[in-house]
Amino acid sequence: MTISVTLLVQMASFVLLIFFVNRVLWGPLTTIMARRQKRIADGLAAAEEGRRALDRAHEQEEEILKLARERAAEIVDHAERRARGLIEEARERAQKEGEEMAALRQAEAATEMARMREALRHDVGRLALLGAERVVQREIDPRLHADLLSQVMEQL
Amino acid sequence: MKHPIAYMTDHLKNLTVGHGFWSFQLDTIGIAAVLGALIVGTGWWVGRRLDEDHPTGMQNVLEAVVEFVDEQIQGIFPARDPLIGPLALTVFVWVLLMNMMDELPVDLLPTIAGWFGVRHFRSTPTADPYTTLGMALCVFLLTLVYNVRHKGVLGYLKGYVVHPFGPYLFPFNILMSLVEELAKPLSLGLRLFGNMFAGELVFLLIALLPWWFAWIPGTAWGIFHLLIITLQAFIFMILTIMYLAMAASEGDGAH
What we know:
- The complex is a heterodimer of chains A (156) and B (255).
- By secondary structure, chain A is mostly helical.
- Chain A has helices at 5-136, 146-155.
- Chain A has one domain (46-155).
- Helix content of chain A is 91%, strand content 0%.
- Chain A is rod-shaped and about 195 Å long.
- With 255 residues, chain B is mostly helical.
- Chain B has one domain (4-248).
- A two-stranded antiparallel ribbon of chain B has the order 1-2.
- The longest helix of chain B is centred in the last third of the chain and has 38 residues, at 170-207.
- The model of chain B has no long low-confidence stretch (mean pLDDT 86).
- The chains are: A mainly alpha (156), B mainly alpha (255).
- Chain A binds chain B through residues 1-11, 13-22, 24-30, 32-33, 35-36, 39, and chain B through 18, 20-25, 28-29, 32-33, 36, 39-40, 43-44, 47, 50, 52-53, 59, 62-63, 66-67, 70, 83, 85-87, 89-90, 93-94, 125, 128-131, 133-135, 137-138.
């Protein structure tokens, strides 16, 4: 076998083919594959980030709910206490008013009694005077004996 | 009945134009060029409609091949290099396709060529040493370039002097290193050529058998040869990467 131009042509074909393979196959394909790889990696990272954000949101939600529950309990507690206070207050007021009313009635009754006693005393005086007139058969002049009468009434 | 010797020698002659140095083996050159054009054409066809999100059909195949080749490179080659990828991919795909020509019936292309008045036609470019040695020579020249680029001229030449027996036996060292370096491209090219040539030869021998029997060993050898075809393409690629990786490694004693 001698060196012939066929060898050189085949070498040239080889070199040329390497050049074109790089142009149309290796270059574009490796580029696109690297890009896809990067996108997949990015996507996975984003998914991971999203999951972490979701976890954080869940935690926050839990916290907010807890806070809200506490606050609601506080409000209910407060309201209950306030209601109890109001009832207590109302009861006290009612009691006091009742007592006041009772005292008023007593006072009115006492005044009435005093008035009736006064009237009764007056009547009794007049009856006594009438009795005495009958006994003495003579009219006692009320104007003359006013002093006497009032003295008698005083003694009743 | 065909005469066996005439049949064999006829089939082992190339379609040659010219004499001596200026002899063009048109069948080897032509088929190699057509297959190369097929690769580039496929690449161009797929490249027009590359889809990053939904790769389909041929793009998947090519991506798988590229990924496979890239894996081999990353396992062997020490650093990132813009040339080694396309080089290895070209070697693998081109050699594989050229080897595949061996699987065509041995008489198919010669018969068709015969209709056009062509007496000799060989359909497997890699069964022609000009192709395999041409590629091996290209790889060898590239190793020279890589050696010089990574070790410097002096560093590279120093390897010849001190390797493998130390500086005091430098005449032996130079001889041994020369043999070693020259054996690499020679064995690289001849291994592929030998395998393909032997495969072709066996197919020719089988073709000489009576037609009602030939298909049995023909099928068996065809299936076995598929393995050899793929394996030889793979070996050629791996050795190409390895020789260049050795040349590109920084240490000078790493032969």
